[in-house]
Design brief:
The complex is a heterodimer of chains A (114) and B (115). Helices cover 0% and strands 50% of the residues of chain A. Chain A has 114 residues and is mainly beta. In chain A, the strands form two sheets. In chain A, strands 2, 4, 5, 6, 9, 10 and 11 form a seven-stranded mixed β-sheet that branches. A four-stranded antiparallel β-sheet of chain A has the order 1-3-8-7, with no helix packed on it. In chain A, a hairpin with a 5-residue loop joins strand 7 (64-68) and strand 8. Chain B is built from no helices and twelve strands. Chain B has strands at residues 3-5, 10-14, 19-21, 24-26, 32-39, 46-52, 60-61, 64-69, 74-79, 88-96, 104-105, 109-114. In chain B, the strands form three sheets. In chain B, strands 2, 5, 6, 10, 11 and 12 form a six-stranded mixed β-sheet that branches. Chain B is globular. The chains are: A mainly beta (114), B mainly beta (115). The A-B interface holds A 31, 33, 35, 40-45, 48, 50, 55-56, 58, 88, 90, 92, 94, 96, 99-108 and B 4, 33, 37, 42-47, 50, 91, 93, 95, 97-108.
Amino acid sequence: ETGVTQSPTHLIKTRGQQVTLRCSSQSGHNTVSWYQQALGQGPQFIFQYYREEENGRGNFPPRFSGLQFPNYSSELNVNALELDDSALYLCASSPGQLFNNEQFFGPGTRLTVL
Amino acid sequence: AQTVTQSQPEMSVQEAETVTLSCTYDTSESNYYLFWYKQPPSRQMILVIRQEAYKQQNATENRFSVNFQKAAKSFSLKISDSQLGDTAMYFCAFMKGGSQGNLIFGKGTKLSVKP
């Protein structure tokens, strides 16, 4: 059984650019959640997708957007990058059929904005 | 809004000893779940243990156990027989019941296990 994978592992962008991060959910999981983890902090919820629809959103501006595809993989897009967007971005998948399932995390993408 | 507080930024313990990590939370919900996650230097967040709020019995997973005090809104993690591989950041997290939703994390405790 393949776990949650994310790509790329790390990347560097400059302020004002746009970035797309990718996540492949664990086999059989139809729910994907994205989190931002700033250095020295706990992860903060960005949004969640369930069966290709946004299913909840944290306190992040609209320049953070996402997609979920029919195979349940997902993308996180961030437009107009700011220095404060530098963080580890974590993706987590869960089965979704029942509530309060365990979320399985990927290794994350380290984004640096210069 | 729910909040999770971890008051110990760093802790250390000798190999084979026992250590307890503290967590308090604030919520007006009656149905919720609490979690402890481990994040080693490899960055992959791994679930250590989970507690349903409606269960009075404290959860246990091998060397890991919790002390869940619902009235005090306290959820501490005890690691027995600490091993070098336990060195990691530990995050306490809250999830509202009846949702598929988001985890609310504390700021974490950095645990170092010394030989």
